[in-house]
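Dear support,

I submitted the protein below through the web form. The confirmation email said the job was done, but the results page showed an empty box. After a refresh the structure appeared. I'm attaching both so you can tell me whether what I see now is the final result or a partial one.
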Amino acid sequence: MNLLDTNIFIYARGRAHKYREACRKIIEFLENPRNDLNVDSEVLQELLYVYTYRGQRKIGIKLVEDIQVLLPTPIQITGEVIAKACELMRKYDSLVPRDAVHAAVTIVEDLEGIVSTDKVFDSVEEIKRIDPIDFVKERIQGQ
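What the results page shows now:
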């Protein structure tokens, strides 16, 4: 299983960008019962925060509700995840708290990787970042 980062949903809804179409295809892929993707509860909180901060609270709420239909059992943030996030933040100065939590979830839950546009994950040797464009080429179009 792979974790989806918050930016997948933001790029899918956003303006024209090199990642927009790949992120949209990933969201469509969530309807496939054989998808191997999930989010953690921090992704949902982060989406609510970002859209509220942008003055688009209703859009954020609707987006999170739609994700919960497609991914009804997000991975929960546990004490073990927070402890691992702290450990990662001590080791990697460039890792901000939210990214540390996502990286920690990937490690604690023994996930294959995190699908993200955020290259900061490339510096975390304990996890694998999967670029959304590569994910689409290898996992969706390559089926």
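Response: this is the final, complete result; the empty box was a page-load delay. The CA atoms of residues 14 and 20 lie 7 Å apart.
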